[in-house]
Design a protein that fits this description.
alpha/beta, six-stranded mixed beta sheet, 16 helices, 44% helix, binds pyridoxal-5'-phosphate
């Protein structure tokens, strides 16, 4: 079999294959070059890594365990293992890159971080890291999302972040990113932009990927220690793609491991009903980078939808577009209903309430288990579901709850 060569890093213009790059002004390019240079320096700096690793261990609680989901496995006939990113401080994988980004900003002498947030998860992780490391934190959030996501808005307030309500357009994540970019243009001398996934202009996809790769490094070692061998399948949900690339990177070179990225099918296949950018998108540009993008026949960016607000972005990380193009990772979909069913299933079978985002990966693992009994399936459980319980009980109550 011909070995596929997998590009680990983007080329010098920030492209992974045909995707990525920097579609931004020259002024911003100059600033992003500084972020790139500092990142390249600090990622191999002993003091930086000692400090980051100390925070990951003693503050966030790494390494997160791998858990054998015994009841789920028995019910569906495959061995299902969960990488417990839900056990991180603040309840999801986002703290991994937030600590890295804020620490980098601090090393660069910045006094503020600027970020966008949709459902508020990235905002909370950034506000947490900024409080800890003593930086100011401006979070741009659509006014619609602010109304919807009260608990996370309150968390950010308590943590001391400054929340800026974005009223333009649909008042959701896409506009929040636009406004955060604009603000950063005016403040880049003292502030650093800190994006929430493996998206945006170069070098952000590689930077966030670097800080998330700890998940895959740990998971590979842990599953071998626990079971004596590699898994047959690795599964993660894909919004922008940071938790997925984090775990995938541990296994990309293991040809015998089948890797699955799960996109949200939402309510259906039609434009506007889902957020499955790789499955239904076409090449396009959003927020300064090229990717598979949900758009109409005129190239207008479509509204993305998923029951899991952390997944409803019309674009997707360039590395995923590349891994899809070379066939190393299979991208498939799970709809709202299947995700909700998996949300209850994991809660009832294992006593673990997953985030609705992560429920997409759990739902897909159950599908794989039915299809391939006796296989060993490793799922990245990217976050916990506390943030989703009110919503689920209101909109998708179980007859007995
Ligand atoms: C934000 C979020 C996601 C989606 O983001 P990725 O960058 O695709 O990982 C997935 N799971 C949880 C719990 C999240 O909070």
């Amino acid at each position: 079999m011909n070995k596929i060569k997998i590009e680990k890093l983007p080329d010098e213009t920030g492209f992974f294959g045909n995707y990525g790059g920097q579609y931004i002004s020259d002024e911003l390019k100059a600033e992003f070059k500084k972020i790139y240079d500092n990142f390249i320096y600090y990622k191999d700096d002993k003091e930086f890594n000692d400090e980051l690793n100390d925070l990951l261990k003693h503050y966030s609680g790494r390494e997160t365990p791998i858990y054998y989901a015994k009841n789920l496995s028995k019910k569906y006939g495959a061995d299902i293992y969960l990488k417990r990113e839900d056990l991180n401080h603040t309840g999801a994988h986002k703290i991994n890159h937030s600590l890295g980004e804020v620490l980098l900003a601090k090393k660069m002498g910045k006094t503020k971080v600027i970020a966008e947030t949709g459902a508020g998860q990235h905002g909370v992780a950034m506000a947490t890291a900024a409080a800890l490391l003593g930086l100011q934190c401006d979070i741009y959030m659509g006014e619609v999302d602010i109304q919807k996501e009260k608990p996370n808005v309150n968390r950010m307030k308590i943590l001391g972040a400054n929340i800026i309500s974005v009223t333009s357009g649909a008042g959701t994540l896409k506009e929040a990113v636009d406004e955060a970019f604009k603000a950063y243009m005016n403040e880049y001398k003292t502030a650093m932009y800190a994006i929430g996934s493996v998206v945006g202009p170069h070098p952000f996809p590689m930077l966030v990927e670097h800080f998330q790769s700890v998940v895959g490094r740990e998971a590979r070692k842990q599953i071998i220690e626990m079971t004596g061998a590699l898994p047959d399948c690795v599964v993660a949900c894909v919004g922008g793609g940071s938790n997925a690339i984090g775990i995938f990177n541990g296994f990309l070179d293991d040809e015998e491991v089948n890797i699955y990225g799960v996109e949200p099918l939402g309510k259906g296949e039609k434009l506007g009903e889902n957020a499955a950018s790789i499955t239904y998108g076409k090449d396009g540009i959003i927020h300064g980078f090229k990717c598979l993008l949900l758009q109409d026949e005129n190239g207008e960016i479509a509204n993305a939808y998923s029951v899991a607000s952390g997944l409803d972005y019309p674009g997707v990380g360039p590395k995923h577009c590349y891994l899809n193009s070379i066939g190393r990772v299979k991208y498939d979909t799970v709809n709202d209903k299947e995700a909700i069913d998996a949300f209850y299933e994991l809660s009832r079978e294992e006593g673990i309430i997953p985030a609705l985002e992560s429920s997409h990966a759990v739902a897909y693992a159950i599908k794989l288990a039915k299809q391939y009994p006796n296989k060993k399936i490793l799922v990245n459980l990217s976050g916990r579901g506390d943030k989703d319980i009110d919503f689920v009980l209101e909109h998708f109550p179980k007859s007995d709850s």
